[in-house]
Specification:
Protein name: Glycosyl transferase CAP10 domain-containing protein
Order of helices and strands: HEEEHHHEHEE
Domain Glycosyl transferase CAP10: 7-92
Number of strands: 6
Distance between the termini: 23 Å
Structural class: alpha/beta
Strand order of the largest sheet: 1-2-3
Number of helices: 5
Strand content: 5-15%
Helix content: 10-25%
Radius of gyration: 19 Å
InterPro entries: CAP10
Pfam family, one: Glyco_transf_90
Largest sheet: 3 strands, parallel
Organism: Astrephomene gubernaculifera
Length: 163
């Protein structure tokens, strides 16, 4: 927040904000009841979706995993070590080693094929993604392997980051 105000000065609105640390979007814009409540609060969170009205801020992953130093700034080296031609022709899905849940109003609809979220209030995203790949898609070039080190993800031509 300090960097934002230093950069943008008086153009930053003078409003109260809520900085939330939980790992789910708060204001689901697809929920028709949300807009009946009146103006939305500016809620800053590390997590959002395309249906969320929250304001995204960097998550702790960027600090604890040293993402800039260990990964983003190493793009040139990764590209030299594993050129495009040498990468596996597949889409790899992965995430960090903890469960991810996502309950949004828009997610109440059925997924493709025979899968649906069901009545559970917070479906496990990674498990549903793996189930979809295994039972519905069955495509050998789209894989899910929770737990592979993030610095190996670039060995694939496409990555689906489930976080």
């Amino acid at each position: 927040l300090k960097r934002i105000t230093e950069r943008w000065g008086t153009s930053v609105p003078d409003v109260e904000v809520l900085l939330a640390a939980d790992d789910d979007p708060t204001q689901d814009a697809a929920d028709p009841n949300l807009w009946k409540q009146g103006p939305l609060w500016p809620i800053m969170k590390q997590c959002k979706s395309s249906q969320s009205a929250d304001i995204t801020v960097p998550t702790w992953h960027f600090y604890s995993l040293h993402a800039s130093a260990m990964f983003f700034s190493q793009t040139e080296r990764f590209n030299r070590e594993t050129p495009w031609e040498a990468r596996q022709l597949r889409a790899y899905g992965g995430g960090l080693l903890y469960h991810r849940t996502m309950w949004l109003h828009d997610n109440a609809r059925s997924l493709e094929g025979n899968l649906s979220w069901g009545p559970e209030p917070a479906p496990m995203l990674r498990e549903k993604f793996a189930q979809y790949l295994r039972e519905e898609l069955r495509h050998p070039d789209i894989v899910f392997d929770e737990g592979a080190p993030i610095d190996t993800w670039g060995n694939n031509k496409m990555v689906i980051h489930l976080d």
